[in-house]
Amino acid sequence: MSRQIPESELILNADGSIYHLHLKPENLASLVFTVGDPDRVALVSKYFDQIDFKGNKREFVTHTGRLRGKRVTVMSTGMGTDNVEILMTELDSLVNVDLKTHTVKPSETSLEIIRLGTSGSMQADLPVGSLLASEIAVGVDTLMQFYPKLEGSQDWSRLVQRTLDLTFLPYQASASPELLQKLPNEFFRGVTLTAPGFYAPQGREIRLKPKMDNMIERLASLEVSGLKMTNFEMETAGYYAMGQLLNHRVLSLNAIVANRPTGEFDKKAEKTVDHMIRAALEVYC
């Protein structure tokens, strides 16, 4: 018999929707595109042939519809792996938990979840305006300190820990091979560092000087099995780790809008993001 999940652990709204996302199972497609910015949801759904559902709560805005006959959802997440944890847990609950009985369903459903995000390059030869798929992600946030140990190689985790002299071991997880192999060659493949913040955790200095000197240079010089670390952002490792633990297929795509070694920002960032959106919809829908 399946375990009864207490109402305090799986919280529902008065209308029966799941607490943070404010969605019911019928509002969700099995293919989900995610964006950080709520305003970017409409930039994706404008390419749908039809929109059947719109919902929002806090930073979570959702549109579900159809494109070329395929049912698809796009939703915003806000920033950071703390929001990713909420998102992934509640998406999983929508398909794998009976919300009426608060019990886990006997058969498991796997979602396809594709992040459409922006990112900064830490390699001078990865230019602004390019598109990158995160093949591997390393999280220097502490989310996975609270979850079971991830299976697979942690070579990058140990190397980053030594390089940055961290008091905890970062975590490493990978993209879905099935989703990754569908991408055209215009997408670079890379190793992504997921940071717990935008400024000092990514080596930026405004008025406060980061504790870690030459962070970008130190990380950019690392190499494992011929691969180098390519970019910073704030969610991908959380997506990949939660996807691995919950058995969902996940891929993070990045529009490179900043090059940190050269100090350049993409003056056509909106066009780069739109190009990424259109390319992803063409591949997966």
TrEMBL record:
PANTHER family assigned? FI09636P-RELATED, URIDINE PHOSPHORYLASE
Query: A single GO BP annotation from the record?
Result: nucleoside metabolic process
User: Origin, by domain of life?
Assistant: Bacteria
Recorded E.C. number(s)?
Answer: 2.4.2.3
Supply one GO CC term from the record. cytosol
Q: Which reaction does it catalyse?
A: uridine + phosphate = alpha-D-ribose 1-phosphate + uracil
Q: Which GO terms describe its molecular function?
A: uridine phosphorylase activity
Q: What is this protein called?
A: Uridine phosphorylase
Q: What class of enzyme is it?
A: transferase
Which InterPro entries does the record match to this protein?
Answer: Nucleoside_phosphorylase_d, Nucleoside_phosphorylase_sf
Q: Give residue ranges for domain Nucleoside phosphorylase.
A: 31-273
